[in-house]
Amino acid sequence: MSRESYGEPPGEGHVNELGGTIFGPAVQARDVHGGIHLHQASVLLPTPSQLPAVSILVNRDEALAQLDATRARRGGSGVPGVVVLSGPAGIGKTAAALHWAHRRRADFPDGQLYADLRGHAMDDPAEPTEILGQFIRAFGVAPDRIPGEPAERAALYQSLVTGRSLVVVLDDAISAAQVSPLLPASANSVALVTSRWRLAGLLARGARSIQLERLSPEAALELLELSLGHDRIEEDLDAARVLVELCARLPIALSVAAARLATRPHRPLTEMVEALTHERHRLSALSTEDDMTIRAALTLSYQGLPPSAARLYRLLGIYPGTTFSTWGAAAAAGLPRSEIRPLLDILTDANLLDDLPGDSYRYHDLTRLHAREMAEREEPETVRAETIRRALDWFLHTATAASRAVAPYRDLPRPAVLHEPAEPIAFSAAADALTWLEHEFRNLRTAARTALDRRLYRTTWQLVDAIWPLFLHRGHYAERLDVDRMGLEAARAGADSTAEAKMLNRTGLALRALGRLDEAAEDFRQAAELWRRLGDLQRLAGAQRRSGLLDMDRGRLDLAITRFTEAIAGYRTAGEPRRAARTMSDLGDALIRSDRTAEAVAHLTQARRLLGGEADPYNQARVLILLGRARRTDSAVAVDLAAQGLRAMREIGSETGEALALQVLGELAADAGRRDDARRHYEDARRILSRMGTGTGHLDEALTRLEGPG
């Protein structure tokens, strides 16, 4: 988070600073006489409910009993309430964890959190910082209020879960280091960690270990019976017993085999036994026992697919993302969505795909490895390369459309695509476009990395550029810097000076959001040098504005005012009235903070006029609110301006802007002696900021002043 400085500038007296992330009220003082009393209403946070649906579970009574025992002994020393469920791939670790969490959810009234840590997926394992952001957002904290620094993000997470009763399921962990920041410190909570590893680092700190073994022969038969029916198993019991042994009594292999048998109700089990026996022999020289079993079951199921479904299975195995929609699958395969849907249904029915809420699908990590193996075996390199390029082109085309829907004033270059989507997504509203960017963010990041690895440099930096509105409105501070640096690497590798300067602006803004102001200044300096070399006057004006923002962050208001003034002149010379008006709002803000309100009114009034014809509702609302604050001596006019700004911010869904408007309305009501109105506005603003996870100390101070003598 950026650091805010209060009081006198450096070198002119004492400096009173608040650093890091503030969650709740804060008091800063040099001398205190008498007592300090803080009063803050409790804030109701949403109750997260993230558990995926459960699958069939058999023969896990002992493991469930051990989990019950852990629940009973929570609150002990070490790492209380942490259980590691370990075992080989396909043994049913996730099913056991989710079954218990669902069964005991009433014991955790404050919520249930779930994260796939992707410890053994083909993509990189999930970073703890990424999952922390996901968990914090589940409590209703606005993304743009979530700190980017890992330590600050972990601290905010712990402050949210402290004293609460939660169950946290951390699925497919790769190491103790990946898991540790995600464990709730609350003694009332339980964390379930699934992993193929024992995770000795957690056990050494007091976590409990539950090792899952293969199903018993009876339990394996029960699983088949639940899938196929009692009569079918009894008709060919001997073949069923052979089948469960051929599947090594592993739930994943049994589920795949059962799915194939379920779609062929008239075929005898002996036919499946013969086919699986043959497939196991073919793979025996290539695999370990467990891997051989699962691969054999997957291959057999794959061989039973219709050719069109088998082709889609292969192609989606090389799709650059963890999940995919019907839109993305259709684009990658070069097929209409009307043909894709029934093929995805076939793969889902065969237990080769998991269908997720919101038109999304995903492979189990082992299934995706198998699908990719089939693609590499049966598809020529030209087809595989075209499939990946089609998917990347779909991501870039759609992200660009989303970016234009959210920020229509941006001058985005034509997307560098070879394959225009036959059925592009049309975003009817900015909110829909932002939702798509949020939902696809992990896949967009993977797509950018894939494009960079394949030396598609223009695709890479254009993807990064298109994602920018998500960062502006939803935060993702830690992830943002990594993505922006991918764009910078691609621009430099492609020797594109214009793209390099744009990406340096991006990385500088990401560093500023993280409070790393010196590093941000260096990236802005390098960008300015490139813009100067390219002779781009508009971008040089932008460099001045960004430097002014850093000066504001450092409390150097006079220098910020000078830079904003120079930037406005540069924008005017370059013929950029909207950017000039936006910078006039920044200048007005700095002038208000410097108690030069008459000058602020003049600049903000001009900004309002210039923004009147622009498609920029946020800055139009912001200038109204700032004008209300600047004209506080004319109460009726000021209230009307701030109220207009409040309505506009609510219409576009900006909680930050809404809180700013409410604070200004509270100030105006207090000036007029309307204490009840002031209190109501301040408390409404405080509730919003508390929900967003940002500091409310200034509002608490304002409320305290209202309680003083009239």
Describe this structure in words.
The chain is an alpha/beta fold. Among the domains are: 151 residues, P-loop containing nucleotide triphosphate hydrolases (Rossmann fold, 3-Layer(aba) Sandwich); 87 residues; 73 residues, Winged helix-like DNA-binding domain superfamily/Winged helix DNA-binding domain (Arc Repressor Mutant, subunit A). The protein contains 32 helices and ten strands. The strands form three sheets. It has a five-stranded parallel β-sheet, sandwiched between helices. The relative contact order is 0.07.
CATH level-two architecture of the domain at 61-211: 3-Layer(aba) Sandwich
* Chain-averaged pLDDT: 85
Low-confidence stretches: 1-27, 32-42, 75-79, 283-288
DSSP strand count: 10
Query: What is the assigned CATH homologous superfamily of the domain at 61-211?
Result: P-loop containing nucleotide triphosphate hydrolases
Shape: globular
Widest sheet: strand ordering: 4-5-6-3-7
User: Can you tell me the CATH class of the domain at 61-211?
Assistant: Alpha Beta
> Termini, distance in Å?
37 Å
> What Rg is obtained from the alpha carbons, in whole angstroms?
29 Å
Fraction of residues in β-strands: 5-15%
Helix content: 55-70%
Topology (SSEs and partners):
Blueprint: E1 4-7, E2 15-18, H1 61-72, E3 82-86, H2 93-103, E4 112-116, H3 128-138, H4 150-161, E5 167-173, H5 176-179, E6 190-195, H6 200-203, E7 208-211, H7 217-228, H8 230-235, H9 237-246, H10 251-262, H11 269-283, H12 289-303, H13 307-316, E8 323-325, H14 326-333, H15 337-349, E9 354-356, E10 360-362, H16 365-378, H17 381-406, H18 430-439, H19 441-453, H20 457-474, H21 477-493, H22 497-513, H23 517-534, H24 537-553, H25 557-573, H26 577-593, H27 597-611, H28 617-630, H29 635-652, H30 655-671, H31 675-692, H32 697-706
Parallel strand pairs: 3-6, 3-7, 4-5, 5-6
Antiparallel strand pairs: 1-2, 8-10, 9-10
Helix pairs in contact: 3-4, 7-9, 7-10, 9-11, 10-12, 11-12, 13-15, 13-16, 14-15, 14-17, 17-18, 17-19, 17-20, 19-20, 19-21, 20-21, 20-22, 21-22, 22-23, 23-24, 24-25, 24-26, 25-26, 26-27, 26-28, 27-28, 28-29, 28-30, 29-30, 30-31, 31-32
